[in-house]
Design a protein that fits this description.
Layout (H helix, E strand, L loop, with lengths): L1 E5 L3 H12 L3 E5 L4 H4 L4 E3 L3 H7 L2 E4 L4 H10 L2 H4 L6
Parallel strand pairs: 1-2, 1-4, 2-3
Length: 86
């Protein structure tokens, strides 16, 4: 399965490598790319838009409501996805 993470804090950094170990293709976007680059097997996305556009599952681990508004809504990332299940 193609899985994307948006926000790679301590929780994402713990979960993503386990998904890689289970055989999933995992990519991540983080405001600081260094948080992704240090994780073996996790690919770096250049924008949050690519997470929704190219992956079957998107997991967001953002710090607060403002971060969600900026990264998911205002960036156009959610709009890039043609379908959503709410």
């Amino acid at each position: 399965m193609k899985v994307a993470f948006i926000g790679m804090g301590s929780m994402g950094a713990a979960i993503a490598p386990r998904l890689v170990g289970a055989g999933h293709e995992v990519h991540a976007w983080n405001r600081s790319s260094a948080a992704v680059e240090c994780l073996a097997g996790v690919g770096l996305l250049d924008s949050p838009v690519r997470a929704f556009a190219e992956h079957e599952v998107v997991i967001t681990m953002l710090s607060d409501d403002q971060a969600v508004r900026e990264v998911i809504l205002e960036s156009g990332a959610l709009a890039a996805q043609a379908w959503c299940i709410w």
